[in-house]
Design a protein that fits this description.
With about 70 residues, this protein is an all-alpha fold. Helix 1 crosses helix 2. It is flat.
Length: about 70
């Protein structure tokens, strides 16, 4: 089997594993946070921080890198 063939099999499987691990870890974090606080306010705050924070960080990183000349 050629290297290109192996990569075409491994990359999609690896991407599924990485996404499942990230989503599972985030889900566990939300469950633990809700259990520790005994209400939903912590989950709401963390979710809102992620919704606002991730695009904000991406904006600043893109701005710092700049456009290629």
């Amino acid at each position: 089997m050629t290297q290109n063939m192996m990569l075409s099999i491994i990359v999609p499987i690896l991407s599924l594993v990485v996404i499942a691990a990230f989503a599972g870890g985030l889900g566990v974090l939300f469950i633990v946070l809700e259990g520790a606080m005994h209400n939903e306010i912590g989950v709401i705050v963390l979710g809102s921080a992620l919704v606002v924070g991730v695009p904000l960080v991406a904006f600043f990183l893109e701005r710092a890198v700049g456009e290629p000349q």
